[in-house]
Design goal:
Elements lengths: L2 H59 L15 E7 L9 H18 L3 E7 L1 H9 L6 E3 L8 H16 L9 E9 L5 E9 L8 H6 L14 H79 L1
Parallel strand pairs: 1-2, 1-4, 2-3
Antiparallel strand pairs: 4-5
């Protein structure tokens, strides 16, 4: 075997090893997507009903509660929770979320407000550390398999900054940037404002047109503001948990797609290298035959 053939064979073995790794990661991501989808589907009904109940409480409370935006105050700082992944090999999943967060931060600064970042995932933390930016808080190690305990810890930090807002500290708004899982091939970076709540007046006809049905009549005991104070932690925790679940499903889908593309590219590269190795082998055989014929002709001429 010639030197060129050995180079090609070595490269083929290396690509085959890489292909085994990417194929295994593709299968792992495919199996985890199903579980992530099931967790999202199990959490969404509670999220919808909780949002519906807290919207009713905010509607009946009026403009005297700090959770609603009817209270007149100077907006100074906005908290932005950015959810990314802890590991790479997921295509543009993390970079798309960070890009969406950068656009949101630019809009917030145009309003004359300061951005207070809260980060989830090593990719976002590395992005901010590399650029020397300050972070209010960060969490890592659970981006692909979040639990409600993680969401509760994150929500506690966000609520503390929102409820303790003053002229010198705290935040006046809470935004979350996550990747919304729509299907196996579509994941969209999304921005959602959690607090303050926005009370939107809606007629019965508008609710029916939106497919929401008649709005239930609630009786609050002891009062609407007290109910809002009780539901606030659960509301924020649940929205953060739902965002984490949707982001985790999107991460698995993005990693599966990226690993499948890497596996397909490895197969094409193996075919190309095999073809080049065969060509090199044919060239070596042709050269050997030419040398043998030339040697035989030389011996015949000398005889």
């Amino acid at each position: 075997m010639g030197a060129q053939q050995r180079v090609y064979r070595r490269r083929i073995k290396t690509v085959q090893s890489t292909k085994k790794i990417t194929k295994a990661m593709e299968l792992i991501a495919s199996s985890r997507i199903v579980k992530a989808q099931q967790r999202v589907e199990a959490a969404l009904p509670y999220t919808r009903e909780l949002t519906r109940a807290i919207s009713a409480a905010a509607t009946h409370t009026g403009g005297g509660h700090p959770l609603t935006e009817t209270e007149q105050r100077v907006q100074q700082r906005a908290a932005v929770l950015v959810i990314t992944s802890d590991r790479g090999l997921a295509g543009a999943y993390s970079s798309s979320a960070i890009k969406e967060a950068e656009q949101l931060s630019s809009l917030i600064r145009e309003r004359g407000m300061e951005v207070v970042p809260f980060l989830v995932g090593r990719k976002a933390v590395a992005y901010y550390k590399f650029r020397g930016r300050a972070m209010a808080a960060s969490w890592t190690g659970f981006s692909d398999q979040p639990t409600y305990a993680h969401a509760k810890e994150i929500a506690a930090a966000l609520l503390e900054s929102f409820l303790s807002r003053t002229e010198d500290g705290g935040t006046d708004e809470i935004h979350v940037v996550y990747t919304h899982f729509q299907s196996m091939v579509t994941q969209v970076p999304t921005v959602r404002r959690i607090l303050p709540l926005e009370v939107v007046e809606q007629t019965a006809a508008e609710a029916a047109a939106a497919g929401q049905g008649p709005f239930p009549l609630y009786e609050f005991e002891p009062s609407g503001p007290a109910v809002l104070d009780s539901l606030l932690p659960k509301y924020v925790e649940n929205l953060v948990f739902t965002s984490l679940l949707l982001s985790a499903a999107s991460e698995h889908a993005a990693r599966r797609r990226a690993m499948k593309a890497a596996t397909d590219n490895a197969e094409e590269l193996i075919k190309t290298l095999s073809r080049q190795a065969n060509q090199a082998r044919q060239a070596e055989i042709t050269q050997e035959i030419s040398e043998i014929v030339g040697g035989a002709d030389a011996l015949s001429a000398s005889a």
